[in-house]
Amino acid sequence: MENNFFKSIEKKTGVNMNDIFELANSLQNANFKDENTVRGIIKRVSQIANKPVSKELEDKMVQSIVNDGKKLDMNTISKMLNSKK
Protein backbone atom coordinates (compact mmCIF):
# COMPACT_ATOMS: atom_id res chain seq x y z
CA MET A 1 0.00 0.00 0.00
CA GLU A 2 2.77 2.49 0.96
CA ASN A 3 4.68 1.59 -2.18
CA ASN A 4 1.69 2.51 -4.36
CA PHE A 5 1.31 5.80 -2.48
CA PHE A 6 4.93 6.75 -3.12
CA LYS A 7 4.76 5.61 -6.74
CA SER A 8 1.73 7.88 -7.18
CA ILE A 9 3.64 10.84 -5.73
CA GLU A 10 6.63 10.09 -7.96
CA LYS A 11 4.38 9.97 -11.02
CA LYS A 12 2.66 13.28 -10.17
CA THR A 13 5.78 15.21 -9.16
CA GLY A 14 8.54 13.56 -11.16
CA VAL A 15 10.57 13.41 -7.95
CA ASN A 16 12.13 10.13 -6.88
CA MET A 17 11.02 9.28 -3.33
CA ASN A 18 14.37 7.65 -2.55
CA ASP A 19 16.01 11.02 -3.23
CA ILE A 20 13.57 12.68 -0.83
CA PHE A 21 14.24 10.11 1.88
CA GLU A 22 18.00 10.46 1.44
CA LEU A 23 17.70 14.23 1.68
CA ALA A 24 15.52 13.99 4.78
CA ASN A 25 18.05 11.69 6.44
CA SER A 26 20.89 14.07 5.62
CA LEU A 27 18.98 16.98 7.18
CA GLN A 28 18.63 15.20 10.52
CA ASN A 29 22.28 15.57 11.55
CA ALA A 30 23.32 18.49 9.36
CA ASN A 31 25.19 21.46 10.82
CA PHE A 32 23.11 24.42 9.66
CA LYS A 33 25.71 26.85 10.94
CA ASP A 34 28.20 25.52 8.39
CA GLU A 35 27.99 27.43 5.10
CA ASN A 36 29.30 24.54 2.98
CA THR A 37 26.74 22.14 4.44
CA VAL A 38 23.88 24.55 3.78
CA ARG A 39 25.07 25.23 0.22
CA GLY A 40 25.24 21.48 -0.41
CA ILE A 41 21.69 20.99 0.84
CA ILE A 42 20.40 23.87 -1.30
CA LYS A 43 22.11 22.42 -4.37
CA ARG A 44 20.72 18.95 -3.66
CA VAL A 45 17.17 20.26 -3.25
CA SER A 46 17.58 22.25 -6.45
CA GLN A 47 18.61 19.08 -8.30
CA ILE A 48 15.77 17.02 -6.88
CA ALA A 49 13.20 19.71 -7.64
CA ASN A 50 14.74 20.42 -11.03
CA LYS A 51 14.70 24.14 -10.19
CA PRO A 52 17.96 25.98 -10.82
CA VAL A 53 19.08 28.37 -8.11
CA SER A 54 21.05 31.45 -9.09
CA LYS A 55 24.21 32.30 -7.18
CA GLU A 56 22.44 35.38 -5.82
CA LEU A 57 19.49 33.36 -4.49
CA GLU A 58 21.82 30.71 -3.08
CA ASP A 59 23.77 33.41 -1.23
CA LYS A 60 20.53 34.87 0.20
CA MET A 61 19.35 31.45 1.30
CA VAL A 62 22.69 30.65 2.93
CA GLN A 63 22.76 33.99 4.74
CA SER A 64 19.20 33.52 5.92
CA ILE A 65 19.94 30.08 7.32
CA VAL A 66 23.53 30.39 8.58
CA ASN A 67 23.69 33.99 9.75
CA ASP A 68 20.08 34.80 10.59
CA GLY A 69 19.30 31.42 12.13
CA LYS A 70 16.27 30.80 9.92
CA LYS A 71 14.94 27.30 10.33
CA LEU A 72 15.74 25.01 7.42
CA ASP A 73 13.13 22.48 6.50
CA MET A 74 11.53 21.31 3.28
CA ASN A 75 8.78 23.94 3.55
CA THR A 76 11.30 26.77 3.95
CA ILE A 77 13.38 25.54 1.03
CA SER A 78 10.30 25.15 -1.12
CA LYS A 79 9.18 28.71 -0.36
CA MET A 80 12.63 30.05 -1.16
CA LEU A 81 12.75 28.17 -4.46
CA ASN A 82 9.30 29.38 -5.44
CA SER A 83 10.12 33.02 -4.70
CA LYS A 84 13.11 33.08 -7.05
CA LYS A 85 12.76 36.81 -7.75
TrEMBL record:
Domain of life: Bacteria
InterPro entries the UniProt entry points to: SpoVIF
Pfam families: SpoVIF
Protein name, as recorded: Sporulation protein
Lineage start: Bacteria, Bacillati, Bacillota, Bacilli, Bacillales
